[in-house]
UniProtKB/TrEMBL annotation:
Keywords in alphabetical order: Glycoprotein, Protease inhibitor, Serine protease inhibitor, Signal
Organism (species): Otus sunia (Oriental scops-owl)
Signal peptide (residue range): 1-22
Descriptive protein name: Serpin domain-containing protein
Molecular function per GO: serine-type endopeptidase inhibitor activity
InterPro entries: Serpin_CS, Serpin_dom, Serpin_fam, Serpin_sf, Serpin_sf_1, Serpin_sf_2
DNA-binding found in the keyword field: no
Protein family (similarity comment): Belongs to the serpin family.
Domain Serpin: from-to ranges: 70-434
Pfam families membership: Serpin
Upper taxonomic lineage: Eukaryota, Metazoa, Chordata, Craniata, Vertebrata
Amino acid sequence: MKMKPTFSLCFLLAGLYAVAQCHQHPRYHNKHDDSKGTHYPGRSSHGEGIYPVKNKTFVKLVPSNADFAFSFYKLVASEATDENIFFSPISISASFAMLALGAKSATLTQVLEGLAFNLKKTQEQEIHEGFCQLLHMLNRSDSELQVSLGNALFIEETLKPLQKFLDDVKSFYEAEVFSTNFNNSSGAENQINNYIEEKTNGKIVKLVENLDPLTAMVLVNYVFFKAHWEKPFSTSYTKQEEFFVDRKMSVRVDMMYRKGYYRNYFDEELSCWLVQIPYNGNAAALFVLPDEGKMKQVEDALLKKTVSKWEKFLQDRKIHLHIPKFSISGTYDVKRIVKQVGMIDLFTEQADLSGITEDEEGGRLLSSCWVIHRAMLNVHENGTEAVGVTVKEVTWRSGDFPHPPRVRFNRPFLLVILDKYTRTVLFIGKIVNPLKND
């Protein structure tokens, strides 16, 4: 009896922040990509300006994407109370929304509702159109800011994916689709790893190993984020200081320092400092520093409405800012976590994914799968090019503190990286130990 190929769905996300020299990255995927394997034919990606400016469908996605981001964080945090956390919620949302293109009936509803969409208020088509717009706006590359977010499907060459599914993943999610011979495991691994290495500018290598020859499909998801601080830190002020991991343990870290104007606020109710550090371009990092013993209280309050409140109260005032240099990464079993947001059938034999392939087993494609999300972040002064950069600031502004407070991130803190124009949460992290990278 011939065995049906299992369906291994692999979300491999590489989200990288580095403030070294920027280099250009194509805004749209080239359908003549030199990755080994055959491209399935399909419609080309939507061009710039396909939607009139007044039709901002992506705006409907903003509240749901934020709700999903903070829900996912709490699920991860509940299992990793004393560990670093870092992931890209928008990347996970986009991947599952794309997968919904091949889902039907209860499976489709579970996926979209699991992504925090109210299907009575937002139609499925609006969700896909909104993600299409969002990906176009987020995917940009210039001298100030580089964001590259996308997906690729590697499908077993003996399967017959439905043309509508291929067309939709290309047109809505700018996904590349390759025909792959998984019977040749080493060849398939090389094909996928070469693709990931290229899309992450060489930062992620050999991520896929020991592929099962019975694999039917691998979905690769990646995010690459590179930006310069709007106001760089000077390396001459970076000094070794103590970082208090908890009451019993401390580590020595390279602590950056800068006195200057930042949008900041102390939340008396939650007992935490908020400092927003802008990047050149249209992104910003919101650093959240709970008082000692208040991390759980702040995490529990981490909701869309809380972040909105913080944004309203942030004021541009001078502070003495101390933030550690750190590299952080996170790897998560997304398959297990999304079950807790209601995607019950998706990874079982009850899943209806008959919109993906003509194969008679199409409804049970995800019963055997691997879903991994990996994200990485690197925070430092601003790269080697930043030395000698100066930013002139007005010496006094109304609303300034009489004596600028010293905000020292020398204990566990939270980090939210936002795209300001689309109000999208690109990354969420918790830094418990800056020296522990994974």
